[in-house]
Amino acid sequence: MELTNQAASPHPTWRLVAITVLVVATSSQPAFLLGAAFFQVGPEFGLGPVGQGALTAAFFLTAAATSTPLGRWVQRVGWQRAMRVNTRSSAVLMLLISLGARNLLLLIVLLVAAASLYGMSNPAANQALADHTDPARQATIFGMKHAGIPTSALLAGLLIPAVVVHWGWRWALGVVAVLTFLLSLTVPKSELPAVPHSPEAAANRRPLPMRSLLALALGSAFATWSAISLSTYLVTGALSVGFTAAGAGWLQFGGSAASIATRVGVGILTDRRGSSGLGALAGLVAAGAVVFALLPMTQGGLFALAVVAAFMTGWGWPGLMTFAVVQSDRAQAASSSAITQAGVFVGAGVGPPVLGTIIERSGYPASWYSVAAALAVAAVVVFRTGRR
Predict the structure, then answer these.
(1) How much is the mean pLDDT over the chain?
(2) Rg (CA), the chain
(3) Is 237 exposed, middle or buried (0-12, 13-18, 19+ CB in 10 A)?
(4) Cα 121 to Cα 347: distance, rounded to the nearest angstrom
């Protein structure tokens, strides 16, 4: 077996994985924390579920618009510089939101500015891991890296009982701003050694054509509805069925942890099987469609269990998506993964206002059914792409 730099010195690999997870988690925190704490944010700014969806849509649609051009920029300047720019600028913007966003217009302006920076976090993280981790373990590695978004939701859920219910959402965002700046200090300054490619792997690698990348972006857009429903509307949805604010926060925390475990677990299985990951991806998304269809029929403890299952299936797939793209062309990981990531952001931008409208007009059960339908469409798209 070919020896790699990581095989001789595993600690830099795990440190790099941790940094990429936290970069994605902290730069997306404005959207997730405002969603989890909307029971305070909404009354302060006079917003309901549709307004909540509009704020989330503004964040992710901006990220969708900046993801592809920033992916090319990351390819030119390098992932290290991109991560430092991302974390330090995000910290400043979160602090400005915490201290200065006293009216809705300023909140939107600062949120959009933070979203434009978020567009570079995933391409930078993907390129770092593509260059400096063992190709034979990259499904596992990208499963860990894609713990970034559920970690963001997990952090937001944890901040509800720990900070928000006692001191308010502004203090919580200020705490995250400080943590994000400290994270910027951990980004390596010196160049890391690249992992050598085996000749066999290079010979068998076939870059995905643009048609397949766009199809996977479409599937990602539909599948992302589940992520938005869980990260943006879960707390208020749990409140509507009798949970306390602290209990709903802990439910989001537990579900996010289950999602992280699923992403890592399916990554390990994919590496052991040596597959592209697309078959497992389609199956996981299809299972999520079934879980969300059953969610409106539950309450109390069963509702909590169904939510955890929804996190595991409907939000356990992103690592497999990125792995399928990156392993086909590691040298262009930032730019190619930015295309499918743009699909994620489009889904995250379109989903919130649509779901918010459904909730206001028909209630939370109808929104869960709409998510089930979106996941079913995503499963079909990914399955057909995998067959091609």
Answers:
(1) 83
(2) 20
(3) buried
(4) 18
Distance CA 295, CA 338 (A): 32
- Name the CATH code of domain 12-188+209-387 (choices 3.30.365.10, 3.20.20.410, 1.20.1250.20, 3.10.20.30): 1.20.1250.20
Which residue's entry shows tokens 């770092």? 128
- The answer to which of 138-142, 156-160, 313-317 has the lowest mean pLDDT is 138-142
Q: 3: part of which helix (H) or strand (E)?
A: none
Q: Which helix (H) or strand (E) holds 200?
A: helix 199-204
- Which residue did the predictor score with more confidence, 363 or 203? 363
Q: Which residue has the tokens 């944010």?
A: 41
**Amino acid at position 44, single letter:** E
In terms of C-beta density within 10 A (0-12 exposed, 13-18 middle, 19 or more buried), how is residue 360 classed?
middle
Rounded to whole angstroms, the Cα distance separating 94 from 99 reads 9
How far is it, in rounded angstroms, from Cα 121 to Cα 334? Answer: 10
Alpha-carbon dihedral of residues 370, 376, 382, 385, nearest 10 degrees? -110
Matching residue, tokens 């909730």: 359
Q: Are 260 and 154 in contact (CB under 8 A)?
A: yes
The candidate with the shortest Cα–Cα distance to 292, out of 364, 356, 220, 360, is: 364
Contacts of 373 (CB under 8 A, 6+ apart): 289
Distance CA 323, CA 70 (A): 20
Domain parsing of the chain, residue ranges: 12-188+209-387
Q: At what angle do helices 121-132 and 138-145 cross, to 10 degrees?
A: 150
Contact in structure between 67 and 220 (CB atoms under 8 Å): no
Q: What is the 3-state secondary structure (H, E, C) of 248-291?
A: HHHHHHHHHHHHHHHHHHHHHHHHHHCCCCHHHHHHHHHHHHHH
pLDDT tens-digit readout, 101-141:
899 999 999 999 999 888 888 888 888 887 887 777 777 78
Instruction: State the Cα angle at 293 between 289 and 299, rounded to 5°.
Output: 130
Cβ–Cβ under 8 Å, residues 307 and 295: yes
Say how far apart CA 38 and CA 36 lie, in whole Å. 6
- The torsion region of residue 198 among left (phi > 0), alpha (psi -120 to 50) and beta comes to beta
Between CA 276 and CA 210 the distance in angstroms is 17
Cα distances (angstroms) measured from residue 65 to each of 78, 114, 274: 20, 13, 34
